[in-house]
Amino acid sequence: MVASDQAVENAIEEYMKNMNRINEITEQALAEKETATPERAAELDERLDDIAAIRNRLITKVKKSGISREILDDTERMLSIF
After folding, report:
1. What percent of the chain stands above pLDDT 70?
2. 52 and 43 in contact (C-beta within 8 Å)?
């Protein structure tokens, strides 16, 4: 395999890991929200909004510019707070 093909494959794999992580965080927040107090539910709504914003930002940047190390690192950094 050519080195550039391997780099693209690695970038796609990292992109999918980020998307899977976003989905996991979303599912966890939604599950917790079902039994949460009203105050906690409000916090989880904010968390879900933040997660959706990260997801939309990732998708938009990839559609516009393709997958890059900068985009992947930025997304991983944002997800690390969850």
Report:
1. 96
2. no
